[in-house]
Amino acid sequence: MRRMATSESSAGATTISEEMRGEAESQGLLTLGVEEEYLLVDAVEPRAVEAVEEVFDLVPDDLRESVQHEFQRSQIETASPPQLELSGLYNALQRQRAGIASAAEAAGVRLVAVGAAPAIGPNTRVVDKPRYHRMRERFGDLAPGAGLCGMHVHVSIPDSETGVQILNHLRPWLPIFQAATANSPLAGGHDTGYSSWRSVMWERWPTVGPAPYLQSFEHYETLVADLEASGAMLDEGMLYWYARLAARYPTVEIRMGDVCPSLDDTVLLAALARALVSTLLNDVLDGKPAPDVPHPLLVAAHWRAAKDGLEGLNIDMATREPRPAWRLMRQLFDYVRPELDRHGDLEMATILMGRLRSHGTGAARQRAILSQQGTVADVVDWLARTTAGAAPR
């Protein structure tokens, strides 16, 4: 039996209904859900503001179960209900984004889907909850600024032992997922030279990084217990591996990406995540061993993802050589195509993949605005519009 972590995150918001569970089991399909973290910024200036309580009070009643506090007072988080159909996920996330954006506007601020605060601004305080205060006391200034905002995709698994083997198979694929989510090139009012500055800042925490190669679920639990005993994390909720077993629900949680500005990109990556987990589940059931990719090579590939996004290079784990990241993204799409098709996601995923190829990652679009004599304020304006549902630029 999994232990219950004491994380503040809802990690999925709603348990799956018996009707959906039965449909998934009868058709051999996997459910998925998405968590998104957002930044709250001033209505006029691009700086982050401590406004989560004011926004929270104005959230529509029908969305309240899906909305959570995050670590700092300039952040807010949503979690979709589990879904079988990709259109259902899109609609649920769209309602959440629109509802929280409207609540933010009513509170005199803006909701922005961005990995890190783009503009210069004061450090914001942690949310007034005991766990967050304990984290601040133990880990000090590991999280200065206004907060780091990510996206987590949950995909259902049959059991924890199988889930651990899926984690092993996932390891080589996650750098390209990270590259596709890159959406934080700016910090302190300037271009950092990284497509995901959030990734660089996030890696300061002691448990952030690729999951190790795991021998079994017992090995997983032993590592969790050892990390807690070491003081490197308060509880299982602070296991910040790039993929892990969710503490509350029977899912694999892929969690190393920046939050995406466009809902199109979020839903595309959720579809690819489900198709990849389903593909790898077949490998596990067929007894195929996971490739034991050297940990230093994985770290290097994740660094390249943070540096280049999809607009540069990443590492082909089969050949261990640098390749254009978009070529590796295409390889991933082709690899999971049969499971995209089986889950009914192929048509929508193909359309969304084309859109991502056309307009680029969030980092690329932010830089495009700056290259057209735009300012950081212009970038934040675009992020706010896109988060609320405007068409991608």
From TrEMBL:
Residues 1-24 are annotated as: Disordered. The keyword Nucleotide-binding applies. GO terms for molecular function: ATP binding; glutamate-cysteine ligase activity. It is an enzyme of class 6 (ligase). This is Putative glutamate--cysteine ligase 2. Belongs to the glutamate--cysteine ligase type 2 family. YbdK subfamily. Residues 1-17 have a biased composition (Polar residues). PANTHER family: GLUTAMATE--CYSTEINE LIGASE 2-RELATED (PTHR36510). Keywords: ATP-binding, Ligase, Nucleotide-binding.
